[in-house]
Amino acid sequence: LLVLTVASEKTDGYKRFIESANLNGLKTKVLGLDKPWKGGNMKSVGGGYKLNLYLNALEPYKNNDNLAVLLTDAYDVVLLANSSTILKKFTAFDAQIVISTERSCWPDKKLADHYPTVELDGYRFLNSGGVIGYASQLYKLLSEKPIKDLDDDQLHLTNLFLNTDVRKKLNIKLDNYASLFQNLYLSEDDVKMRLINKSYVLENTHFNSHPAILHGNGISKLSLNSYTNYIPNQWSPESGCSKCKDNTIDLSMLKNENYPIVLLSIFIDRATPFFDEFLEKIKNIDYPKSRLLLSFTTLVEYHKEKVDKFITEVGNQYNASFVFHKTPKENIHARHFVLQVFYLILIYILQYY
């Protein structure tokens, strides 16, 4: 099994993906690393560049009928199984190519009625974030029709799959019941973590399956982040968090004024019980306030007054404090706004501290 993925930068998501691949002993090749991303801004349609990178990487294997290749996103994906488990699940489909699925027909909802029907409330619609197949067949699939770098990769693969002749010729099947791939968007209620043999595993309780590849597609990335605090092999009842002591600093060797500056960004997007107690815990964090940047972003009218009162009482004790009051409709934009603001603050800190 060969894993191919695409990443232009070594982000935290990329590092998490590579760690999960290494943990499972998977041979991985990263395409496009440290090179400009040519597939659009990924806030809407785009990503054809990814398929073109895959096609070029498959060129040496275009006649190999035995090598299985997994094509997967990197930044919002973790691998949960080794090669033997993945190959066993793949061969059970009796297909040459298997593509992951989701509940949303994106980016062209009008194509929904063209999909084959699926029983037992299976995931019906193709998601391009996960594809596995034999190298020769994948090469044929991606060679079937050219795609521009800025065109949409998911729409491209959807149209190829919905072409009955192509689907039958290349023996393509969809993973409608999350045997191999789990895309989280609109399916988060289907997924639970179960403690087995002193470590957590991901289980789709809707289909009674244990997916091998977890993808936080769309706006499900926060859920992915939560799951990856525990999987793969990130937490156990005996040893607790396996990563929490990595890259730590011994503060006992530093004076308070030399402590690292830490940004504490609190995003309140729903009415929260015990909010007063929460604010009290924030105030009592055992870390010099002069080395803390404190930020509140509130989308809930009910909590805005309490946040303002908190900042009025203790905000001047911090290195800096910020309050951003937004509306629920501004949820995603508010998150992006806060990131941009603190990117500028980071630049300031690097220049003047």
Automatic annotation (TrEMBL):
One Gene Ontology term of the molecular function aspect: procollagen-lysine 5-dioxygenase activity
UniProt keyword annotations, A-Z: Dioxygenase, Oxidoreductase
Protein's organism: Sipha flava (yellow sugarcane aphid)
Record domain PLOD1-3-like GT: where: 1-241
Top-level taxonomic group: Eukaryota
The UniProt record lists the keyword Zinc-finger: no
Full protein name: Procollagen-lysine,2-oxoglutarate 5-dioxygenase 1
Organism lineage: Eukaryota, Metazoa, Ecdysozoa, Arthropoda, Hexapoda
Record GO cellular component, one term: endoplasmic reticulum
Pfam families (UniProt xref): GT_PLOD
UniProt xrefs under InterPro entries: Collagen_mod_GT25, GT_PLOD
Annotated transmembrane regions: none
